[in-house]
Amino acid sequence: MAHRGLKQFGDGMDRIAILSSDEIQDCIMRFESNGETPFDPREAVEKCIANIMSSLLVGERIGENSEDFSSVHFMFSLHSEESLSVCEVLQQHYEQGDLTKDEVYGVMQDILLAGIVTTSTTLKAFLLILVNKPDVQKKVQAEIDDVIGDGRLPTFADRHKMPYSEAAVLEILCYSTTTTLSIPHKTLCDTSVGGYKVPRGTMVWMNLWALHHDEKYFDVPHEFKVERFLDNDGKLLSAHERKSFLPFGIGKRECLGEAMAKVRMFLFVTSLLQKLDILPEDKNNPPDPDPTKFVHGITNLPGPFNIVVKERK
Q1: Binding positions for heme (predicted)?
Q2: What's the predicted TM-score (pTM) here?
C-alpha cells in the first residue's frame, strides 16, 4: 500500500524530482551563505532531505525554525492537497479497514526516518569524497558542463547522458555502504542457505558491507573508484553486470524508496557541482573519508567535518 502511495506520483517520479530540486536549491543557498568560511554541511544536508520527505509524505515542508527533527508528529496531520500524499493513501486504506492506526503510523515513521537518514548519510559521505578527490569532482563538473551547461537546472532525465556522474553515485553507495547490514528480515518457512538449515521465523541480516567489498568482484574494494561501474567505452554498466552490488536489497523486500533515493542523490550531486566547487578546510589535511572510521550504528555515519565552497567561474 505504501508502494502504491509512492507510485501515484508517476513512473517518471516527476513530482519527487520537482520537490527535490526546490529543496536542493535551498540547500545550495545555505552553503553559499557561508561565503568562503569553513562550515559543517551535515545539518544543511539533513534539512534538505527531511523537507523533501515531509513534502512527499504530508504535502508540507518542515518549518525553518523547527528545533526537533526527530519529532514526527507533523506527519500525522492530513491536509487538503491537489494530489494525494503518501499519508493520505494510507489514511484511505485505514478508513476502509485495510490497516490499523498503528500500522499507518509505523509505515509512515519507517518511510520518513529511512528516507532521511540513509540518503543524507550517503550524501555526507560523498562530500567527504569530493574534498579528497578533486579529480572526481572535476570529471562530474565536466560532464555537467557538456550535457547541462549553466543555463538550466539538472533534471533526472539528464542521467542518461551522464554515465560518469551516475557511476559516481553508484560508487558512493558501494564504497560507504550506508546500511552495512541492511535491515533485519525474517524467514517465512524452513529453508537452507549454503547447506545451513534456517528454521521458519529466524531473523536474517544481509551483510551488504561484505558484498560491496568482496575482492572476487571488486578491484581494490576499499578505494573509491568510479570507473568500476563503467565499461571500456565509458558507458554505465547495466544492472546485471554489477556483480555483488545490492545497496537496496533484492526481490520483493528490496528497498521501497530505491527510485526516490536515486532521484535525490543524482539531483543533489549534479545541482551542487553545477554551481560550486567543494574544498577542504585545510587542503593539506582534508577530513578522512574512510568509511571504516565512521560511527557505526543503523547507518555508517560520518563524524563532524568542515568544507569550504566557492562559486564556479
Answers
A1: 255
A2: 0.86
